[in-house]
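Good morning C.,

I know you're traveling, so I'll keep this short. The sequence:
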Amino acid sequence: MAKQEFQKGEIVIYKSKEGPKLEVRLKEDTVWLTQKQMALLFDKGVSTINEHIKNIFKEGELSENSVIRKFRITASDGKTYETNFYNLDVIISVGYRVKSLRGTQFRIWATKTLKDHLIKGYTINEKRLLQAKSQLKELQNTISFLQEKSKHKLLAGHEKEILNLLANYSKTLALLEQYDKGRLKLVKKTKGKFILKYDEAKQIIEEIKKDLIAKKEASDLFGLETEGKFKAILGNICQTFEKKELYPSLEEKAAHLLYFTIKDHPFVDGNKRIASFLFVYFLDKNDYLYRSTGEKKINDNALTALSILIAISDPKDKEILIKIITNLLEG
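The tokens, ready to paste straight into the viewer:
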């Protein structure tokens, strides 16, 4: 006996060693055959099968309403017709009445097929549920994190931005709705084309410094690198292990550029401003700064709040901050 891969409501191929090959419908956790297919299966005439089915219903062995379904099939003339299909209960009952070896073989095969179907179906649903629970837990952690940090004195006046960050991030809830409808999908991450090189970044920082000094908003200490830290940060973002990138997606690279440039203090002064500018520059060069509507994925006010959040955060909160940033960029 052999069978092909099947999905919900699709066809399974049944073929015994000596018997016929049948296209069996698998739906509603049972299998379905027409009278013609049962006749072929049991090597009996259609009229004989029909007579047995009538007696099964007449004797009250099975209820007609619960074991018959109409499915559309395409006939040899190319037209589609609604045809009566009978479930496994009917097939087994007919098989006992005709005392057919073929019927026994089919019953064994059908039971195993259904068992496989149910186990696989349970496994898939269990995986979806675990994913949904994980997303909900992540959302709850993010809410708690933002609520706690929003009380920090450095974030005074940024309450609206924190609320907007939370509102945008809570799109994760949509995954739960997708799970309920059986449409949970994996998110595809973006591959970036532009890579920020150290020499280019330093030149950009010098241009920012000149502009800020002219406005009397920075000193000579602005952008002064300490012990090659910034060069190391750019190297880490593009780091590979066994020819695989540590941060393969554009979102991850951008998030880590922002986080490390603020948190690792690679410059004597101006870490948050430099990090924010390079973050925007990196996204813009990768054509990933704006939504399809033309608005920035993370606006200037939100970016300011994010920068302060990173600055005041505990190192153990790194992963949750990276997730917040990458999720915001995804939208």
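Safe travels,
E.
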